[in-house]
Each structure stands twice: as structure tokens, then as C-alpha cells.
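Project standup — Tuesday

K.O.: blocked on the structure for the chain from last sprint. Re-posting the sequence here as requested.
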Amino acid sequence: MASTSDIRKGLCIKYNHDIYKIIEFLHVKPGKGPAFVRTKLKSVTSGKVIDNTFSAGHKIEDIRVETHKFQYLYNDGDTYHFMNNEDYSQIQLEKDSLDTPELMKEGETVTIQINTEDSMPLSVDLPAHVILEVTSTEPGVKGNTATNATKPAIVETGAKINVPLFINEGDKIRIDTEKGNYQERIKD
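H.V.: unblocked you, prediction finished:
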């Protein structure tokens, strides 16, 4: 058993007869009244995100997980195929169990958390950022730069990302996988 002081991003817990992964949390100590922890929980079975508040010191049932490195191979429809980098075994996961599948490039190494009790995959964690090539975008118009102007671009995985006006087709860009935002252009 863990308590609210053990809450951290990525922790998997049992809550309301389901398994949830903590995707956001905030410890709050109001001037009046007891402290509490505001959390955002994502169900690993359905992908549904809920908000929940735990009072300070509340006991939570955490789940023992192992993390393994897997290589993303391909997808066919809503099923994504991964290969374990150590023993070359393969697993398939549904699209709704992945956070940002549109940013995964074939051959990308990801971290998969596996429940030690029943060997079921719980979640897939991408690297903090990925580097993808822009396959199509409209040219930027000069004079439209009064503020931080952006334009839509489609990258090699099919994801649509807003990028600055100076980005052209063929440019490689770094994308933050947590928020899905453009970070910088990569020079070759």
C-alpha cells in the first residue's frame, strides 16, 4: 500500500475496480483545511481520463510494474505491433491504450509498462521527443509575422502539427511527445 505522498506521474494504481495511470498531479495545501492531492487518472483498460482528489495521507493501492524496451514495428488498423528488444517476442496493443500513436515512427524504441501479476501491458511511454520529417506544408507568406505565426504541417507519420512559418517540406523537426508541440528545427 502506498499513500498520497508516493503519487508521481506514471504511477499505476488500482482505483474503483480498474487500473489507472496517473498522468498529472498537484499537491495542494490550502491556508485553511487539510492538504489534498488533485490528480488526473487515465484508465489503462478503456483510455478514459478522470479527475480525482485524494485527501492527504489517503492510502492507495499501487500496482507493481516492470518496464521493458520494445521496438514499434507496424500497425494494421487499430492494432499496433511491438517487439521486445531483449527476447524478440512480439505483442499487439489497441490504439486507445496508446497516448500519442500518431507520433510513433516504425523502428522507434518505446518503454512499455507490464503488470507483474498477470503480465498484461499497462501503458506505452514514448521518448520525451521524436524527430520527424515534414512531408507537406504550405509555404509561409511574408508579412504575416506580426506575432508568433504558425501554419499546419503534416509529418511522415501522418500527424498534423502547427509549425512556424519558416518550416518547409523536407525539414526535420523535433516534437514534444507529451503535448504534441513543435520544439525546434533539426539541422543536418
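K.O.: great, moving the ticket to review. The mean pLDDT is 84. The radius of gyration is 20 Å.
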